[in-house]
Amino acid sequence: MKYLLVVLVLTAGAFAQRSLGTVSDIKSAKCASGFSHGAACQAAIVSCPNIPDMTVTWGSVGTPKVGRIIIIGGNGATLPSGAEFAPKYIAAGFEVTQLTFAADWEDDGNLLDAACRPATLLNYFHTQTTGAYCAQGVSAGTGAIAYGMAWFGLNNTFDNVEFTVGPVFSNIVEGCEVPYASPVKVTPTNGTAFEDPPQYNHEWPSVGKWTGTECLPKHGSTQQELDAWAAQSIVQSGATLSYPRTSIAAWDCNNGLNPSAAESYMFFQQVTTPWALTAITGCTGAEGTSTGTTPQGVPADTALADDMLAHCTVPK
């Protein structure tokens, strides 16, 4: 019976995919601070159903001898992430593309609708890539990638994905509901189990704005609020959670300072294909993996980059 249930969930997901949008008005742009040295930048308009258009800027550097690696971090409106990884990836023969939006990509009151923006871009870059195609997300950027894989038809798009502290929108109900949900026991594939509270204790104002529903309300959560969060979470009925051609690894801080590890694990508990999750010790703050180490004592960012280069290959 368990096998039958899995088949039904995956079948339902095939009929629940959201529509991608379009990328238009592409033109050269000035590279702002945070893009990799030597990057060439372009700006464009991303248009999606049910939400306003948004401007996006991307910067690419390197010659795509092997393929392309997309790096997306934060809420999208912050400085682009991942420039420190670019030299190693470029030396290995990859083109590296970083993204930044004119505003939070999550804006406009429904996270699942808003996730069309980064998903549309990730699909666009895939159509422009020859060779391996991989993605690396940080914090809310992990959510952007996971929404694309689960809801926008990108489940067979990537050869490898690296999630740094996330995906962070996997179960918005447990992040926002009052009374509080219990801490999540995270059992890494690499490292010792630890507990992480799933509450958006610092992120609640932004999550409330992005979902159109007050997060961690003082009055306690109503059924209407619970339903609204559930309908916008990455993990829910109808999501595609099987990625047979994609190698997936996650890197989560084990200090319990924000819900990224809990949300990450709630995603991977539902993924039906192989994945790896490494517990990172010594993070700076809630998500600062650059100072952290793996259980083997390897600097976290070094381990992540090495994993990307080992797995960002076109399956034979």
What's the short version?
By secondary structure, this protein is α/β, with parallel strands linked by helices.
Question: What is the secondary structure topology, with strand pairs?
Answer:
Blueprint: H1 2-14, E1 22-29, E2 40-48, E3 51-61, E4 67-73, H2 86-91, E5 94-101, H3 111-114, H4 116-127, E6 132-138, H5 140-151, E7 160-164, H6 172-176, E8 184-186, E9 194-196, H7 204-211, H8 223-230, E10 247-253, H9 260-268, E11 276-280, H10 300-311
Parallel strand pairs: 4-5, 4-6, 6-7, 7-10, 10-11
Antiparallel strand pairs: 1-2, 2-3, 3-5, 8-9
Helix pairs in contact: 4-5
CATH architecture: 3-Layer(aba) Sandwich
Residue share in helix: 25-40%
Kindly provide the radius of gyration, computed on alpha-carbon positions and rounded to a whole number of angstroms: 18 Å
- Strand order in the largest sheet: 1-2-3-5-4-6-7-10-11
**Average pLDDT taken over every residue:** 93
User: How many alpha or pi helices?
Assistant: 10
The CATH C-level name is Alpha Beta
Find the structural class using helix and strand composition.
alpha/beta
Ends apart, CA distance between termini:
33 Å
The shape is globular
Order of helices and strands: HEEEEHEHHEHEHEEHHEHEH
CATH topology: Rossmann fold
Please name the fourth-level CATH homologous superfamily: Alpha/Beta hydrolase fold, catalytic domain
Low-confidence runs of at least 5 consecutive residues: 1-15
